[in-house]
Structure formats: structure tokens, C-alpha cells
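Support request, please re-run this one:
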Amino acid sequence: MMKKRTGLIILLLGLLMTVIFSGCDFISIDMNTSDDDHDTQTPSPSHTEQEMPSSQTPVVTATVNLPDILVPAASGQAVEENGQAVIDFSNAQDGYIMAKYTEATDMKIKLLLTIPEGIQYTYSIQPNGQFDVFPLSGGNGVYEIGVFKQVEGTRYSMVLSATIDVVLTDEFAPFLRPNQYVNFNKNSAAVRKAAELTAGITDFMDKVTAIYHYIITHIDYDTHLAETVQSGYIPDLDEVLARGEGICFDYAALMAAMLRSQRIPTKLVIGYTGDVYHAWISVYSEEDGWLDNVIHFNGRTWELVDPTFAANGSSRSAAQYIGDGANYTAQFFH
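Re-run finished. Output below.
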């Protein structure tokens, strides 16, 4: 076990030492100020692709066994609804609710989700009559849910609300399933690619390493999108994978989806790196528990995994910046 961990340490150290700090500014949703804008700060130049050591190259076979995906469902057993919107919390114990806006409108629609700690999460709802999935990432306790319709500018009025008391089936439930930000299904290209990359691999950290390395060597930072992204942006993971480009939100969401499809609990984290709004991930290890925002071990402590930074060049400055995570402040978990 020690030899395996040592080899992993060396590999991850090598990966992390290729990183360079780059800005990744995306503004949080706030119904009283502005919508969610992402990655408006210009990053460093994109990375140079590196070859993975042959001993660590994942086995890719012609026939891929796709994993079973935990599929969210609006089963209609516990709902609040009216002529404008529906909130379905039938499967809240599995870590999510679903909501949709049913009335035709050109106005913006928001969902405000207040977790047990009192922190408010604000999401956009597409007024297309289709359900969106929203995670109950605050654990057990009372959640308040409200659907709001724009009146004008930053003024919104509530059209539907619900209060639910949640007892999760397990603490990982919200971080194993698809949701609006980490959106995937069994037919997703991201799920197939994750299955290819991890074929024949059983060890947790070896799977994380294979997926992490693929993303940082195959996805370039999209400077144009970062400069032109519109409010309400939500990652289309298969499009990101096909284009081979994305912003920090895309990097984190894609890696979270690929890991979740392999039943590895993964948090999409949104917060600050210094004074820049940013996205990254956290993963859960049965051996070490939640590796909060980290997967790299430097011989003394675990260090942050940030696929955006790791994909953008080669400099020790990023490793030094990441350090023990002191420069990272998490605000929201999805």
C-alpha cells in the first residue's frame, strides 16, 4: 500500500508542478444585483499537452461497459404546484429537488434555495416547462424553496414556495447524482469517456488520476468565452468535451460529472481564489474522508486540485499559490 501511495504521490506531484496561476472570474447569481457571469478575467495562455506515463495510461477497449447512473426523477409523490410552477421534492432524501416553470414568459425565472445553515443558493430556471435538478447540498435539515419571476430589472416576485425537512439516505447523495450544473446521463459522451479512461482500474485514486490527467491535457482554456460569456451560463459538458475548450466552471463541472459517473462522491465548489470568483472540485476517499478541495499529497499534506490551473502552463507559482488551500474560500457546493 505504501509503494502504491508513493507512486501516486510522485505522479500527482508531477501533474501539479505543471500548473500556472490564471484568473477565472465568474460572478455569483444575486437577484438583487446581477445574474451569474463566469470567467470574465483573461487567463494565462493555454497549456501544452503532456504525455501520460505509459505505466499510468488507462486501458481503453473497443467495448466499454457503461456504469449505471443514479437518475433523478420527478415522481409527483410530494409536490407544491400552481398554474405557474412546480416544485417536486418526492426524492429529497436522495439529495435533490426538481422544479420547473410552466407558464409562457419572456421574463427571467429564479429558484432560491435556502439550506439549513441559512445560506441562500440562487439558480436560473429555464421557462421551457422542463424540470431542472437542484442539489440539497446542505445535508440534513430544513430547506426553504422559492420560485421567483422577474418583474423588471432586478425586481422579482415569488410565485411558489415550499418548506421541507430533509433526512438524506446518506451524506454523499447530493454529490453522486446529476444536477443542473453537473448535468449528465448514461448516454453522455462524458460518461463514456470516463468509462474508457477507468476501464480495468479499481483503485479510487487511480481513477481520479486518470480522469484528472485527461482533462488537464485535453481541455484548453477558452479565453474568448471567458470574455463574452453571458449571464445564466450553464456548462454543456458534452459540448465542452467535443470542443476541447472551456472556462473554469466547465472544467470543474466536467470533472465532477465524470467522477460521479464512476460513483466517486464529488463536490463542484464555487468560491474565491484570492479575490477572484472561481470553481474547483472536492472528492471523497473511503480511506481519508472528504479531501476538501484537494487530491494531491506533497509528502506532508494534501493539496488543492484545480483542473483549470493545472491546464494552463508550467510554473511552480501555481503550486505555491495553491499550497494548503489557504488562498481558496469555498462558498457554495453543487
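The radius of gyration is 20 Å. The longest strand covers residues 141-152.
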